[in-house]
From TrEMBL:
It is an enzyme of class 3 (hydrolase). This is N-acetylmuramoyl-L-alanine amidase AmiC. Belongs to the N-acetylmuramoyl-L-alanine amidase 3 family. Residues 247-400 form the MurNAc-LAA domain. One of its GO terms (molecular function) is N-acetylmuramoyl-L-alanine amidase activity. One of its GO terms (biological process) is cell wall organization. InterPro entries: AMIN_dom, MurNAc-LAA_cat, N-acetylmuramoyl_amidase_3, TAT_signal. Its EC number is 3.5.1.28. The lineage of its organism: Bacteria, Pseudomonadati, Pseudomonadota, Betaproteobacteria, Neisseriales. It catalyses: Hydrolyzes the link between N-acetylmuramoyl residues and L-amino acid residues in certain cell-wall glycopeptides. SUPFAM superfamilies: Zn-dependent exopeptidases. It is found in: Periplasm.
Length: 411
């Protein structure tokens, strides 16, 4: 083994201390590994181990070659964990290979050989939804800066440096007090819901919301770009992005509009149709909308967010901006819904709900529930390329109508 540098030793012990795997609980049941999942992505690669018990662990990072070693207490290798080696894809941006072995009677050691310097974020998730206890290992590119906030790394991977309005700025507002007409290109952020560990809704035939909405968002982007707009996506691969990072990405590129794209699901097959949501200032307009917001906002619980990233600002300016933004959002929602109504039944008029992704105070934001994955007729539509294209065209047409009459904030 290569000689460890002082920094590596410090890093290793600090990691072990910080992560402070609690001392083995007395009479703890032994971990039975239920699943191993790897989500390779450019933004970061996620490895998830799922087990019957809370997974107690320690880890340390080694260089030359770059490796991460994770020791898991109170566990034995089983057939599930043994599959970890073959789950690594050749194309994984960060992992060269992974091995799991029994270190001693009580401990499993996982060795990850890496392709580059990595900033790991390792944390436990409590059971939620269909998931049992999970250990999540997120591998972010280190980018040369030790301890860089992985949220910042996610933002930086947009490849955009906004000159005046970084996310560190305590005042995230653009100068909208006296809007002046501007001829600049409108900037749009498209937000395909869910991704990675969080599949969103799943139809009885196994069609996943995260796949459908990514395909629709890509089609929408093409059409908006053809109209001359600058278009970004919060994700353009199968990766979990925390909800607040989605709105922060929109702030980061100074988006003029934000559209989150989803497909609905309920526990009965009958409901179907398209709906568009805007943020409610005070709770949801209906019980159904509240339930939907709860389920969509649960994404972070399912996908798991480690970092607390609380930059809530609460002042009069925000309230004023927000109510103007909600008015604008409602106008956008109406225009988009009118277009969508040409291709599918309208489930409801404009709905109000308290979605986390709609909370940018200064960016008109809507959430489109394209159709119901839980309804067979809607599911067939969502599966078809032609319907996806129609939805994309509808969203683009609605946005075009909105922007043709909008006064863009000056920058
Ligand atoms: Zn969704």
């Amino acid at each position: 083994m290569a000689e460890l540098s002082r920094r590596q030793l410090l890093g290793a012990s600090a990691g072990a201390m910080l992560l402070g795997a609690p001392k083995l609980a007395l009479a703890a049941s032994r971990n039975q590994f239920l699943a191993v999942r790897i989500w390779p992505a450019q933004a970061y690669t996620r490895i998830t181990l799922e087990s019957t018990e809370k997974i107690n662990y320690k880890y340390f990072v080694l260089n030359n070659p770059n490796r991460i070693i994770v020791d898991i207490e109170n566990a034995n290798l089983n057939n599930v964990l043994n599959t970890i080696t073959q789950k690594v894809q050749h194309s994984d941006p960060y992992i060269r290979n992974i091995r799991a072995g029994q270190k001693d009677d009580n401990t499993i050691r996982i060795v990850m050989e890496l392709k580059s310097n990595i900033n790991p974020q390792i944390f436990n998730l409590e059971p939620v939804s269909n998931f049992k206890h999970r250990l999540v290992m997120d591998l972010y590119p280190a980018n040369g800066r030790v301890g860089e906030d992985p949220i910042l790394a996610l933002l930086n991977d947009m490849g955009v440096k906004s000159p005046t309005n970084t996310i560190n700025n305590s005042s995230p507002y653009r100068q909208t007090a006296v809007p002046k007409r501007s001829n600049r290109r409108p900037v749009i952020m498209l937000d395909p819901g869910h991704g990675g560990e969080d599949p969103g809704a799943i139809s009885p035939n196994g069609l996943q919301e995260k796949e459908v909405v990514l395909a629709i968002a890509r089609e929408t982007k093409k059409r908006l770009e053809a109209l001359g707009y600058k278009v970004y996506m919060t994700r353009n691969e199968d990766v979990f992005i925390p909800l607040k990072v989605r709105t922060q990405k929109a702030q980061h590129v100074q988006a003029d509009l934000f559209v989150s794209i989803h497909a609905d699901s309920v526990n009965r097959p009958e409901p179907r149709g398209t709906g568009v949501y805007v943020l409610s200032e005070r709770g949801a307009s209906s019980e159904a909308a509240r339930l939907l917001a709860d389920s969509q906002n649960r994404s972070d619980t399912i996908g798991g967010v480690k970092m607390s990233n609380n930059r809530e600002v609460n002042n009069v300016l925000m309230d004023m901006l927000q109510s103007q933004t909600i008015t604008d959002s409602s106008r956008l929602a109406r225009l988009v819904l009118n277009q969508l109504g040409k291709h599918n039944k309208i489930k409801n008029e404009i709905n109000l709900a308290n979605f986390v992704v709609l909370r940018s105070p200064d960016i008109p934001s809507i959430l489109v529930e394209t159709a119901f994955l839980s309804n067979p007729q809607d599911e067939a539509l969502l599966r078809s390329t032609s319907f996806r294209k129609k939805v994309a065209q509808s969203i683009a047409d609605g946005m075009k109508q909105y922007l043709s009459a909008a006064v863009l904030a000056q920058r």
